[in-house]
Specification:
The chain is α+β, with helices and mostly antiparallel strands. The chain has two domains: 230 residues, Spore Coat Polysaccharide Biosynthesis Protein SpsA, Chain A (Alpha-Beta Complex), CATH 3.90.550; 100 residues, Sandwich (Jelly Rolls), CATH 2.60.120. It is elongated. It starts with 5 loop residues before the first helix and ends with a strand.
Length: 423
């Protein structure tokens, strides 16, 4: 047997003697990082664990909380987050939304806030919030309706603020009609260490949510087998999904390195959220035809944490655009309401999917006599339907295949009755 080199034999002898000395002193190596955690070469083995007043590092391999962390940076600093808030339509409970933002369990000096408001009515609510909290956040920027930005342009602007700031660690995009009922939402999302992730948002008692579980072959909605179990909290955890909307968290480094383009929210025939998701899937080397469920976005559902409610804008005064007619618990139509279209208020409805399996649309007044314009356009089929005669109706799939929009009413007032069947 070949003899060991002299230097290697020396190291082995020193290790053996060191082991004997530790044993004599009743000492052992901290190989599970119960006391010390070295970040060099082990950064993927640690997560930030947020407490009430401080941040701890958790070793995910041994599930330990080391006391001393050795690295090249201050690992106990909270990441800096740019929060983009989007008020694109008349939104009820806006004051409560802002109050939940203030009470979010996260250091406010680490939050930069960008607000895009597209409604003149809400300017007073934003002004009041700013006057009461202007010194709370690290920065607070508002872009109002006078700028005449589209939804896509506004969302590109908010994301761009984080992209251009090297100190922006995360970008959190939130629509103003999302109500976060858990104060540690942001902390828990950051702990997941995903490039793009969002919390599950639902409507109480409904199967509506802010994500798609799968895509069809042509890139539109397809319900996944476990969708209902996830929405009803029968399954909890983190899942990769192809599409999410209304609220999501993106790493700043992803914006600067992978999503470097500045127009991710603008794409023909798609609403802004769908455009972002399609761009992100393509830029991260995922194509729908290769994978019906590409691992680009992640959705988090944990028990008794994200019991968040998405408040519908189907609301009466001070927004008389839509009024609720109620529903019968014995029937299949679980949501029935009237929509009012008129120039200067709500003259059209942007592309969307309904929260239904099928939707029934009934004309309540006459085109040519009561109003001009109107109708419905189905993007996937490039097909437009004129407003039907008074008392006539048409029915179409809701969430399954038919992305559609309400075409502009150019004069007068148009009324339609809507029934969502089997949401």
């Amino acid at each position: 047997m070949e003899a060991l080199p002299r230097r290697q034999a020396k190291y082995i002898k020193e290790d053996v003697e060191e082991g004997r000395r530790r044993e004599s002193l009743n000492m052992s190596l901290d190989h599970k990082s119960q006391i010390f955690q070295n970040l060099n070469g082990a950064i993927d083995e640690v997560l930030l664990k947020f407490g009430t007043e401080r941040v701890r590092v958790r070793n995910t391999v041994y599930d330990t909380l080391p006391v001393v962390v050795h690295g090249n940076a201050n690992t106990k600093e909270y990441p800096t987050v740019m929060v983009g808030v989007f008020i694109e339509q008349p939104t009820p409970f806006l004051s409560q939304f802002f109050q939940r933002l203030v009470t979010l369990d996260y250091p406010k000096h680490k939050l930069n806030v960008f607000v895009h408001n597209n409604e003149v009515y809400h300017e007073r609510h934003i002004q009041k919030f700013w006057e009461e909290n202007k010194d709370v956040f690290k920065s607070f920027k508002v872009v109002g309706p006078e700028e005449n930005l589209s939804q896509g342009e506004a969302r590109n602007m908010g994301m761009g603020l984080c992209r251009k700031d090297p100190g922006c660690d995360y970008y959190l995009s939130m629509d103003a009609d999302v109500m976060l009922t858990h104060r540690q939402t942001l902390k828990i999302l950051i702990e997941q260490k995903q490039k793009i992730i969002g919390p599950l948002v639902t409507r109480h008692g409904k199967l509506w949510s802010n994500f798609w579980g799968a895509l069809s072959l042509d890139g539109y909605y397809a319900r996944s087998e476990d969708y209902i179990d996830i929405v009803q909290s029968k399954r909890v955890g983190v899942w990769n999904i192809p599409y999410m909307a209304h609220i999501y968290l993106i790493k700043g480094e992803v914006l600067r390195n992978e999503l470097k383009e500045r127009k991710h929210f603008v794409l023909e025939k798609l609403d802004p959220d769908m455009a972002l998701c399609k761009h992100a899937r393509e830029l991260t080397n995922h194509r729908e035809k290769d994978s019906p469920n590409p691992e680009t976005f992640y959705m988090l559902r944990v028990p008794k944490v994200f019991n968040s409610f998405y408040y519908s804008t189907l609301y009466k005064s001070p927004f008389p655009t839509v009024c609720d007619l109620g529903c019968s618990p014995q029937g299949y139509a679980l949501m029935n309401f009237v929509v009012k279209y008129t120039p200067g208020r709500q003259s059209y409805l942007r592309p969307h999917h309904d929260s239904s399996t099928f939707t029934i649309n009934v004309a309540l007044n006459s085109k040519g006599t009561d109003f001009q314009g109107g109708g419905c356009r189905f993007h996937r089929y490039n097909c437009s339907l004129d407003s039907p005669r008074k008392g006539w109706s048409f029915m179409h799939p809701g969430r399954l295949t038919h992305l559609h929009e309400g075409l502009p009413t150019t004069n007068g007032t148009r009324y339609i009755a809507i029934s969502f069947i089997d949401p």
